[in-house]
Amino acid sequence: MPVPRNHNTRDENKAIKAGDVPQDWADKPAMRSQKDTDARWTKKHGKSHYGYKNHVNVDRQHKLIRRYHFSNAALHDSQAVDHLLMPSNTGSGVWADAAYRSEEMEARLRARGLRSHIHRKGKRGKPLTAQGKGSNRTKSTVRAGKHIFGAQINDMGGTLVRTIGMVRAKAKIGMKNLACNMRRLVQLRQLHPCPA
After folding, report:
1. Which residues lie closer than 8 Å to 11 by C-beta, 6 or more apart?
2. CB hemisphere CA count around 81 (13 angstroms)
3. Where are the domains of the chain?
4. DSSP letter string over 12-66?
5. SS3 94
6. What is the pLDDT along the chain (196 residues), one digit of tens a residue?
7. Largest CB tally within 10 Å, which of 32, 72, 146, 154?
8. How far apart are CA 8 and CA 16, in angstroms?
9. Backbone angles phi, psi at 83, to 5 degrees
10. DSSP string, 126-176
11. Could you give the maximum distance between any two Cα atoms of the chain, in Å?
12. Whose CA is closest to 101, among 80, 78, 84?
């Protein structure tokens, strides 16, 4: 979720990362109110992004968002899993992209009695085999999270968050997730009308 970029000095960025307010901002409340000190930078596919992440747990059958976790962009996807997994979930499988795969993650899922359907990833000098690529393609047909993000980007005005601070951004994205669920519920009602 991109946000408008701050144009800070290196010293200001260092203070923000340390959780402090830069010295020259203390006496400038108007400037301070326009700076998003919660957003962070991350890299994906060699491209830098500044903002937040919307991690979602999507029901496989109905494609409804069951739970979401909102964080700054620097948080690795695998660190949000504990916030997303639900003990009341009736399914025993977990589908996710390759960013979530690690030996530690596989062990955590087994300890919870969950079956891993996480994409495999190639390693440097050892790319995925044809069988591994085919397995990932099969898993992609089940994963529903990308449909949610596609709907938010294409049908709901994109993902740029024009608020300042994590609290407001989380509220905005939470409302967008709720609106996605409401749209999906209308679709489900059309596909399976309730008997009168």
Report:
1. 22
2. 22
3. 10-191
4. HHHHHHTT---GGGTT-HHHHHT--SS-EEEEETTEEEEEEEEEEEE-TTT--EE
5. strand
6. 778 777 777 888 788 777 777 777 778 877 777 788 888 888 888 888 888 888 888 887 788 888 889 998 888 877 888 888 776 666 677 777 777 788 888 888 888 888 887 878 877 888 888 888 777 777 776 665 566 776 767 677 777 778 888 899 899 888 888 988 898 889 888 888 877 6
7. 72
8. 10
9. -75, -20
10. BPPPHHHHHHHHHHHHH--HHHHHHHHHHTTT-S---SSSHHHHHHHHHHH
11. 66
12. 78
| Phi, psi for 65 (deg, rounded to 5) | -75, 120
Amino acid 63 reads K
Amino acid at 147: H
Going by the DSSP 8-state scheme, the letter that residue 125 receives in this structure is T
pTM for this predicted structure = 0.73
